[in-house]
Amino acid sequence: MPRLNFWTLVSISTWLLLLVLLFLPVGSILISSVYDDAGNFTLANYARFLSEPRFHRAFLNTLVVGFGGLAGALLLGSIMAFCISRFVIVGSRFVSLLAILALVSPPFIGAYSWIVLFGGGGLVRGWLRAVGINIPPIYGLAGILMVFSFKFYPYVYLMVSGALSNVNRSLEEAAEGLGLTPWQRAFKISFPMVFPALSAGGLLALIHAIADFGTPRLLGRGYNVLATEAFNLYSAEIGSNMSMATTISVFLIAVSMFFVMLQRYMSRRNVYHGNMINKPIKIRLKGWKNVLAHFAVYAIGFLGALPVIVSVIYSFRKTSGPVFKPGIGLQSYERILFNLGDVVRNSVSFSISAVALIVLVGTLVGVLVARRTNLNTSLLDGAFMIPYVMPGIVIGIAFIAAFNTGPVVLTGTAAIIVLSIFIRRLPYSVRTTASALRQISPSMEEAAISLGYSPFRAFLRVTVPLIVPGIVAGGMLSFVTAINELSSSLVLYVGSTMTMPVRIYLLILDGDFGTAAAMSSLLLLLSGLAVYVAFRLMGRNEQALL
Amino acid sequence: MAYLAIAGATKQFGPDFRALDDVSISVERGEFFTLLGPSGCGKTTLLRSIAGFSDLTSGSITLDGSDLRRIPPHKRDIGMVFQDYAVFPHLTVFDNVAFGLKPRKVPSAEMKQRVDEALAAVRLSPLADRMPAAMSGGQQQRIGIARAMVINPRLLLMDEPLSNLDAKLRIELREEIRDIQRQIDIAAIYVTHDQEEALAISDRICVMNAGRVEQIGTPQEIYGDPQTLFVARFVGTLNTLSPGPALDALLKKLKLPQSGVQTWTVRPEQLELFETGAASADAAALSGQVSKYTYLGREAHVQVATDLGHLIVQLANPGTSAGYRRGENVSLVIRRDAPMGFDAAGRRVPMGV
Ligand SMILES: Nc1ncnc2c1ncn2[C@@H]1O[C@H](COP(=O)(O)OP(=O)(O)O)[C@@H](O)[C@H]1O
Ligand SMILES: [Mg+2]
Question: Is residue A126 domain-shared with residue A55, that is, in the same domain?
Answer without folding.
Answer: yes
